[in-house]
Design brief:
The complex is a heterodimer.
Chain A lengths: L2 E7 L6 H11 L6 E6 L4 H12 L2 E8 L2 E7 L2
Parallel strand pairs in A: 1-2
Antiparallel strand pairs in A: 2-4, 3-4
Chain B lengths: L2 E4 L1 H9 L3 E6 L3 H6 L6 E6 L10 H4 L8 E4 L4 H12 L4 E4 L2 H7 L2 E7 L5 E7 L4 E8 L2 E5 L5 H10 L3 E6 L11 H8 L2 E4 L12 E2 L5 E4 L4 E7 L8 E5 L3 E5 L7 E2 L7 H15 L8 E4 L16 E2 H7 L8 H9 L9 H9 L6 H7 L7 E2 L1
Parallel strand pairs in B: 1-5, 2-3, 2-4, 4-5, 9-10, 10-11, 11-12, 16-18
Antiparallel strand pairs in B: 6-7, 7-8, 8-9, 13-14, 14-15, 15-16, 17-20, 18-19
Classes of the chains: A alpha+beta, B alpha/beta.
């Protein structure tokens, strides 16, 4: 996967992971992929719903020793 | 304009008093659909916080100016952000202190009756989740039934009443919430009673509570009489307190009955459920006041916030007690059941002592409504 930007949102509580993700996605081009790391459990449902409502595509999701990783393709 | 913090206790009061409130719930739509703050006179608007990051202009005309406004999210962070944005736009609003997480854990004690010789029985209404637990107090001693994991609330309440907790009961092995019974028993040296048929896999010591047994609380001997009433689980046990109150656990609710499937045994237990509701309960006095372990909808609350009804009234009004045909009964309680409670298998394992998740994990497991009934 061709990731153009990695956002480290670890240790941040809601709403910051989404606020930062939104900012980061504004800085990349349509079709490019953003990788997000967060430790906030609520982020999974929220990022999924946010990506959908913003027309982005959640390509993949992984959980690795309490860190949640998301790959979002900008729509 | 200012942003105020509103506590779960204040909101519980508004529910009990049928007050008006406008709730702007900024969680995502599926979470809101699944579970929200219920009140008779509450109005709702659900717009996820992440759709409002660029501004709240688009929802300003949907927020009434003549009602108190509460912004709600899962843990409070997003609701503070949105409340501040609304405040900057000129509105006076509050946010829910601690979010739905705190709402789910809030317990309101309501006195539901007096027992002989000055004894009292309290119902602890877990209004956000619909769980009901009980404390029987008599002459300096207290018994707790179906406690939640918020054990400090019971310990402090008993202390404020000058009562020592001597007996702790669970009517059955719970699948929707984590029991505080074992923790309370350990902290107070009380005896922890469980129905042995539900406790075959538990990893800790307990005292088996068989049907027919009587337990006395306080010297004035408030009698707690156990009746084996299987169906929701195989061990489910009801209690008659002071010959006046029927603690029905998850067998009988005000407007619904227990579901038999949460331990994966719907087909096997439906006969037991029928027997408990249509034979064993029929042999009891219709004057008993039923005190269940759950409510499902806010309409089941009495005016003082308590949840109770005469057994005789339930025999005439509760649909689940009025299905004459056994096959139809079987069908209703085994088919088209509502979704199972969140993480119910893990909750059962926690209550057996097989796993010991940390508090944060326990909170997460209990998210959502209780869903132990079938209507």
């Amino acid at each position: 996967m061709d990731v153009v930007k990695v956002l480290d949102a670890k240790g941040l509580a809601c709403p910051m992971p989404i606020v930062k993700t939104k900012k980061a996605i504004n800085e990349i081009n349509a079709g490019e992929i953003l990788e997000v790391h967060t430790t906030d459990k609520g982020a999974k449902n929220d990022l999924t719903a946010w990506a959908k409502s913003g027309g982005h595509e959640l390509l993949n999701y992984e959980e690795e020793s309490d860190v949640f990783k998301f790959w979002i393709k900008k729509g | 304009m200012t942003v105020n913090s509103m506590s779960s206790k204040e909101i519980a009061k508004k529910v009990f008093n049928n007050e008006e409130l406008f709730i702007l719930d900024v969680r995502n739509e599926t979470d809101f659909q699944d579970w929200k703050i219920e009140g008779h006179n509450f109005d709702y608007l659900n717009v996820p916080y992440f759709d409002l990051l660029d501004g709240v202009e688009e929802i300003m005309d949907k927020i009434p100016s003549n009602k108190e406004v509460l912004v709600v999210c899962a843990k409070e962070g997003s609701s503070i952000m949105i409340a501040e944005m609304l405040s900057d736009a000129g509105l006076t609003v509050s946010y829910l202190n601690g979010g739905m997480k705190e709402w789910s854990e809030y317990l309101e004690p309501v006195k539901v009756g007096s027992l002989k010789d000055g004894g009292e029985i309290y119902q602890f209404v877990r209004i956000g989740k619909g769980c009901l637990s009980y404390m029987v107090i008599s002459n300096g001693e207290a018994a707790i039934i179906d406690s939640t994991r918020m054990t400090d609330v019971y310990l402090e309440f008993a202390e404020s009443k000058g009562a020592k907790i001597t007996h702790v009961f669970d009517t059955h092995l719970h699948a929707d919430h984590i029991s505080g019974g074992r923790v309370i028993a350990e902290k107070t040296n009380a005896t922890y009673f469980l129905p042995p048929k539900d406790a075959t896999e538990v990893t800790f010591n307990y005292t088996p509570l068989e049907g027919g047994k009587n337990v006395m609380i306080g010297d004035t001997s408030i009698n707690i009489h156990a009746i084996h009433s299987p169906g929701h689980t195989i061990g489910s046990t009801s209690f008659v307190v002071d010959e006046k109150f029927l603690l029905s656990g998850d067998i009988l609710f005000i407007d619904s009955i227990g579901r038999p499937d949460l331990a994966g045994m719907a087909e096997d237990w439906v006969g037991d459920l029928r027997e408990s509701l249509y034979k064993r309960y029929r042999e009891l006095s219709e004057e008993l006041i039923v005190l269940p372990a759950h409510f499902m909808i806010i309409d089941e609350l009495n005016q003082d916030g308590s949840v109770s009804e005469k057994l005789g009234t339930l025999f005439s009004n509760n649909h689940g007690l009025n299905i004459d045909d056994e096959n139809e009964f079987r069908k209703i309680v085994t088919e088209n059941l509502p979704p199972q409670p969140n993480a119910y298998q893990e909750i059962r394992e926690t209550n057996m002592g097989k796993i010991t998740p940390n508090v944060e994990k326990q909170r997460e497991m209990e998210i959502g409504p209780n869903r132990c009934a079938v209507r």
